[in-house]
Amino acid sequence: MSSRQNTIDNIIRIALIALIIVWSIMIITPFVGVLLWGIIIAVSAYPAFVWLAGKLGGRAGLAATIFVVLMFALIIGPIAASIPGLTDSIRALASQVQSGSLAIPQASESVRQWPLIGEPLFLFWQQAATNLTELLARFQPQLRGASVSVLSSIAAVGLAILQFVAAVIVAGVILAHHEGAAALASQLAQRIVPDSRGRYLSLTENTVRGVTMGVVGVAILQAILAGIGFAVVGVPAAALWAAICLVLAIVQISMAVVIIPIAIYVFSGHELLTAILFIAWNVPVLTLDNVLKPILMGRGVDAPMLVIFVGAIGGFISFGFLGLFFGAVVLVIAYDLLIAWIDEISNESATPEAESI
């Protein structure tokens, strides 16, 4: 009876533990994204936070408060301020299209002389300038689908900003209690991989910081510089085009997709010197990631930059923006485990030879 009773007790305990785990997952599921983003922000900002806390005499709470305020002022503030401008630009564009008052300048005759694309581009441009209504009617199904996608994207951006605000606050709380958070992370890593001696925890930290600086940081810098160029030459809806450039740069699609058509527009409607200066400004902007990304992504990570890059982009394609970070971390750890496994096999195969000698 005692053995049977013990079996029943164990089954009940396991069932209760499983129930608690399931309930816990259901409870925290709505907050997982915010918590993960908070951890990513805290890990990325930790070196700067330590420096700031040192300047403040080790007052971690004050340093964390200043960090949250600076994040709101430097990142969230400009993003939130740009949303009304983006919304107004889209609304004005849609209103002009619906009323038929949208005016497109005539194509320059020089466009016709461009090799390969000159003649078809000139004809398409002329039709848009002379009879835009008919041209839009031809592409009405595509435009309807695109407008729905744009509106849903704007709503998603608004929700993402709210989540990011919450994530910054979570990051501030983590940084304010960084010693306890670091100890908990170290104990968890030691529990999962007892012989790692903190190696994988260090790999995770350095990979997250590398992706933050190498992908997101460089993309923000490129988008800001491109937006400055758009605004200076008077490109309509410059903030909207800069935001599109930011998204393209993060997902590793060349901003030339946006900049080249805008450059064509500038060449056709501005003075030659202005157009040349616009191109001269944007060529370094387009190539900036080729210089900075290899330097920043591989800093402090004992893995090839290609592994980090493939992990980040593959993670983004599979799981969205969070996958940008976790994809890189998973692939770097997998690469490290593979190298350790290969080295272990090599050492084992070399041992019998050494003994025989």
SSE topology:
Elements: H1 2-28, H2 32-55, H3 60-99, H4 109-112, H5 118-130, H6 132-138, H7 140-176, H8 178-192, H9 199-233, H10 238-250, H11 256-269, H12 272-297, H13 305-319, H14 321-356
Helix pairs in contact: 2-3, 2-7, 2-9, 3-7, 5-6, 9-10, 9-12, 9-14, 11-12, 13-14
Can you describe this structure in just a few lines?
The chain has helices spanning 2-28, 32-55, 60-99, 109-112, 118-130, 132-138, 140-176, 178-192, 199-233, 238-250, 256-269, 272-297, 305-319, 321-356. With 357 residues, the protein is mainly alpha-helical.
Task: Count all strands and give the number.
Answer: 0
Count of individual domains = 2
Overall pLDDT confidence: 78
Q: Which radius of gyration do the C-alpha atoms yield? A: 27 Å
Percent strand: under 5%
**Uncertain parts:** none
Shape: elongated
DSSP summary: helix tally: 14
- List the secondary-structure elements in sequence, H or E: HHHHHHHHHHHHHH
- Kindly report how far apart the N and C termini lie: 63 Å
Based on helices, strands and strand pairing, what is the structural class?
mainly alpha
Main sheet makeup: none
Helix content: over 70%
Describe it.
The protein has 357 residues and is mostly helical. The chain folds into two domains: 32-192, no CATH class; 198-341. The protein is 86% helix and 0% strand. It has helices spanning 2-28, 32-55, 60-99, 109-112, 118-130, 132-138, 140-176, 178-192, 199-233, 238-250, 256-269, 272-297, 305-319, 321-356. α2 (32-55) crosses α7 (140-176) and α11 (256-269) packs antiparallel against α12. It starts with a helix and ends with a helix.
